[in-house]
Design a protein that fits this description.
This protein is an all-alpha fold and 163 residues long. It is built from eight helices and no strands. The two termini are 29 Å apart.
C-alpha cells in the first residue's frame, strides 16, 4: 500500500468536524420539526429579543433551515457556502444568547435550542457550543478542498469521466 493511499489524519479530522457541525444543526432542526412550532415559538418569546411579529416566521423557518443545512454539511454538499451560512447562524445565535436576559441571569435555564424533548443544554452551554460551531464553520469556509465530501466526489476526475 502506497503512503498516498493511507488514511490521512487531517482528512479524518475534517470529516469528524463536519459530522459534529452537521450533526448538531441537523439534530436541532429535526428535534424542533418533530414538535409543534408553538413550542419553539414559546422558547423564542422567552428570550425577549425578537419583535412578536417575527416569532412565528422564525419558529416555522429556522428548524427547516437548520435541518437542511445540517444535512448539506454532513454529506459535504456545497461545503464552503453551507459552512458560511452555518457560521453566520452560529454567530447570530451567540449574539441572541448574549442579548438575552437568560445569559446574564442564572444561566441555568435550558435554552430550548433542541426542542422541549431533545437535548437539554443551559444557555451558557449552548453559547459555548455555538462558539465551537462558528469556529468549525469558519474553518470550512476557508478550506479549499473538502476531503471525503460529496463536493469533492462530484469534482473528481473519476466522476467527470463517468458522465
Amino acid at each position: 500500500m502506497k503512503p498516498s493511499e493511507w488514511i490521512r489524519l487531517d482528512r479524518v479530522l475534517y470529516l469528524v468536524m463536519r459530522v459534529l457541525l452537521g450533526g448538531v444543526f441537523a439534530y436541532a432542526g429535526f428535534a424542533k420539526l418533530m414538535e409543534p412550532a408553538a413550542n419553539f415559538r414559546g422558547a423564542l418569546a422567552h428570550y425577549e429579543i425578537f419583535p412578536t411579529a417575527w416569532l412565528d416566521p422564525i419558529a416555522h423557518g429556522l428548524p427547516w433551515a437548520e435541518w437542511i443545512l445540517g444535512a448539506f454539511i454532513l454529506v459535504g454538499y456545497a461545503p464552503r457556502l453551507t459552512a458560511l451560512v452555518l457560521g453566520i447562524l452560529s454567530f447570530g445565535f451567540i449574539g441572541g444568547l448574549l442579548a438575552s436576559h437568560q445569559f446574564w441571569g442564572t444561566g441555568s435555564e435550558y435554552c430550548g435550542c433542541f426542542g422541549q424533548a431533545g437535548l437539554k443544554l443551559t444557555v451558557r452551554q449552548m453559547a459555548l457550543l455555538d462558539f465551537s460551531n462558528a469556529l468549525i464553520a469558519m474553518r470550512f469556509v476557508f478550506l479549499k478542498n473538502h476531503p471525503l465530501s460529496l463536493d469533492s466526489w462530484l469534482r473528481s476526475p473519476r466522476f467527470a469521466s463517468s458522465r
